[in-house]
Amino acid sequence: MNISIFGLGYVGAVSLACLARDGHKVIGVDIDQAKLDLIRSGKTPVVEEGMVELMQQVVASGLVSVTDDVKEALSNSDISLICVGTPSAPNGSQDQSAMLKLAQQAGAAMRGKSSPHIFVFRSTLVPGTVEDLLSPIIENSSGKREGVDFFCCFQPEFLREGSSIKDYDRPPFTIVGCNHSYPEEQLRDLFGHLPCEFYTSSVRAAEMVKYCCNNFHALKITFANEIGRLCESFDIDPFQVMDLVCRDTQLNISRAYLRPGYAFGGSCLPKDLRATLYLAKQRDVELPMHVGLMASNKVHLDHAIQKVLATGSRKVGMVGLSFKTGTDDLRESPLVTLAEQLVGKGVQLLIYDPEVHLSRLLGANRRFIEQQLPHIGELIRESIEEVLDDSEVLVIGMLTSDITAKLEMLVTEKHCLIDLVGIPDRDSLRGRVEGLCW
Ligand SMILES: NC(=O)c1ccc[n+]([C@@H]2O[C@H](COP(=O)([O-])OP(=O)(O)OC[C@H]3O[C@@H](n4cnc5c(N)ncnc54)[C@H](O)[C@@H]3O)[C@@H](O)[C@H]2O)c1
Q: What average pLDDT does the segment 190-203 reach?
């Protein structure tokens, strides 16, 4: 393919070298003459393992050229990878000035081009940038239409400095956010040979994935370091602890607990987190990330309350009360907190949970509800029908196949469902469904 690469820093220079190595004709574009001169003479503008030899080899092959002329680069390529820098502005926002300027120049350069062109944004960009800013800028300055004369995609880059050639050849996955099949096919041709899955998504989701991945890495490093500090205060070997933690690939290093849903609660997580925080306090160990977990969980719970209240209805039913499906354990159930808060706000509430029947509750659970939540106990009904009949809003806090079947049968257009669980087939329900954060 004929490819132009804008921005010859770590991402752009490595991509240029690897694409030329794979037989593509590549034009590199940068505003930094020193970088252009280095590449022209077969030298690498970035220090990276393997780049000295690779750059020498690809420049000698004649497949690489460089320029600072945007028009020349676009006229001689069908696809452009945009890798200019997007650093932090002093206030923490993303400084997109280089990207915006380039979009303007690229649009102007597109005026004279008759064949369709693909812009693949590989710089990290805050969600919405491609569709809301860059694509309109190119449309305005070119007088052409996105999706017809040119195409904009976002393909997050996952290489790491220090091992970037290896990472280019072995990425965790390829993700292409695009709205049309033509650029997708072209990018499959370009990157489909890599030994990883090729996924497509909306442009905004692809932009978001890049942030999620980096923030997840930051979260993991911080978690391991906080555990390290806590272990140090107990003279425990943190490497042994974290090594064992990572050996659980069922619940720890897995997809488990990584699906957006409702707040955490129950008989273990809150109490163990509290005990951890107390231990740390006793030993003067600061664990700001762990402290933040409780605060964040409360924000999520408040978000659910606001969603329910925002419906404007005061006739609310709740499906689910225990802290998770299949148990009658009510201790620290975030659904109990939600019920209490709604009652406190004057909502007329009814509750159904197939596992929670006052007549059958025993021991600690019965005592808990009689002593702590007598007002909630009175709201529990024996069947979902009783709850649905008297509710306009239905909070779905749990789902079983029985409940799904009942909802499909009994929910009518007058019902609004607040979905806390991610109902799989929400379109099959007659009522309006509002997800908690989806
Ligand atoms: N460095 C990494 O490991 C890495 C990994 C993944 C993603 N990213 C993202 O990729 C993007 C690029 O990162 P980088 O580290 O390669 O940046 P960099 O700062 O090393 O290089 C950016 C290059 O863009 C050039 N440039 C600026 N304006 C230009 C214009 N109008 N036309 C042409 N070139 C222009 C600069 O001169 C510079 O050479 C950033 O958004 C970054 O967040 C970086």
A: 97
